[in-house]
Amino acid sequence: MYKILLVILVFWSCADKPGTKDTIDNVAAPQPASEVEGNGNGGQNFFIDAYMSAVEEITEDPNAAADYTGMVEVEGGAFEMGGDNDQAREDEMPKHPVKVASFWMDATEVTNTQFKAFIDATGYRTIAEQEIDVDEMMKQLPAGTPRPDPELLKPFSLMFNEQAPGRDVYYPSEWWRMVPGASWKHPEGPGSSIEGLENHPVVHVAWYDALAYCKWAGKRLPTEAEWEYAARGGSKNGVYPWGNEGINVKHANYWQGDFPTKNTVDDNFLKTSPVKHFEANAFGLFDMAGNVWEWTSDWYHYHHYYQIAQEQAIEDPIGPSKSYDPDEPTVPKKVIRGGSFLCNDSYCSGYRVASRMKSSPDTGMEHTGFRCVRDK
User: Where are the alpha helices (DSSP H) in 199-311?
Assistant: First the structure.
């Protein structure tokens, strides 16, 4: 949740010291013991003790864990993982063979109703509802960085701020704003609620929050490979979950118009849309493109595909052992997939099945949610 602080004050995230426990049984995929480093880039993969401790305190609900309602059985198989068209970015290349075992996957993103059931049962507080530990944050910042204003340490989440037209260049630090009081149950900030949004995907949830929900429900987050395999829906080289036809309002909730200055809202959704509003892919999975970004269990490494491309077909990959983003090399990040209502071809085209994005695991945003899987 510290991204904007890092942008404003050379901040980007808050993290604990290296060596912090980095696995939760059956919730996050186990991390590999070692990895060939790409281009000499070390990377990091540590968690925040306080947040992990909160996840560990969650106990599995036996009724939720036995319930497969709303899940789709995905038969495993082999596929080519990685970029398919000229929009593919370097971190999507090269395309490489992967095999995944069969698994169960939520047909939809976790909804506000489902997440509320978890909160009501456990009393869990999301990261966006907690004050920032400034001392812990300062440990990870460059020497000499000034301490932030106490007002910036109040609980908040990040919301998009549409920009005025007329400029040649716009920056993410300008279109994201900290909104104190914004959280999963107050998605537009204080005074807002999820009334009328019960069947919309829950948002403002950090990776840790998604992990906690998974543990309670007897599920886990999908690996990046599982997610892409499921999104492709059996298609060999399809660019989108529905095939190769370009993005349009009949397929997904995305940004129409000029990003980030004018959303024409041709799909009638300025922000999230109800799950199942758009057609499912061939596997029966909804919103694998657009609506909200979805957390995965994998660490993000910019050159991970290059590191593993020389191997034979990889079975059930669980991602790199360390995170590395050349734009912010000191910040460990998790992979998010699927794009959101803010995605547009002119910016990220995140709704492509191969598109990769990343975010620090302690960050909640209004366009990020998740779905879960179970082993078969």
Answer: 207-217, 224-232, 304-308
Among 110, 120, 112, 158, smallest CA distance to 12 is for 158
Q: Report the SS3 class of residue 119.
A: helix
Segment holding 5, helix H or strand E:
helix 3-8
Question: What residue ranges define each of the domains in the chain, with the CATH number in brackets?
Answer: 1-376 (3.90.1580.10)
For the segment 311-333, what is each residue's pLDDT rounded down to a tens digit?
Answer: 777 999 999 999 999 998 988 99
Token reading at 335: 């992979």
* DSSP for residue 211: H
Rounded CA-CA distance 262/201 in Å is: 23
Q: What is the pTM of this model?
A: 0.88
* Whole-number Å distance between alpha carbons of 216 and 224: 21
Q: Is 122 helix (H, G, I), strand (E, B) or coil?
A: helix
Output the CA angle 132-348-137, nearest 5 degrees: 15
Closest CA to 368 of 331, 332, 340: 340
| Phi, psi for residue 327 in degrees, rounded to 5 | -75, -30
Tokens of 349: 């085209």
d(CA 41, CA 307): 12
The answer to whether 190 touches 339, Cβ cutoff 8 Å, is no
First to last CA, the chain: 34
Mean pLDDT value across the chain: 88
Question: For residue 146, with 0-12 CB atoms within 10 Å meaning exposed, 13-18 middle and 19 or more buried, which class applies?
Answer: exposed
What are the strands, taking DSSP E only, across 184-325? Answer: 257-258, 262-263, 293-299, 314-315
Query: Residue 309 half-sphere exposure, CB side, CA atoms within 13 Å?
Result: 14
User: Is 308 within 8 Å of 92 (Cβ atoms)?
Assistant: no
Nearest CA to 107 out of 230, 9, 228, 10 is that of 230
Residue-level length of the chain: 376
Q: Is the peptide bond before 222 cis (omega within 30 degrees of 0)?
A: no
Per-residue confidence band for 1, with pLDDT thresholds at 50, 70 and 90: very low
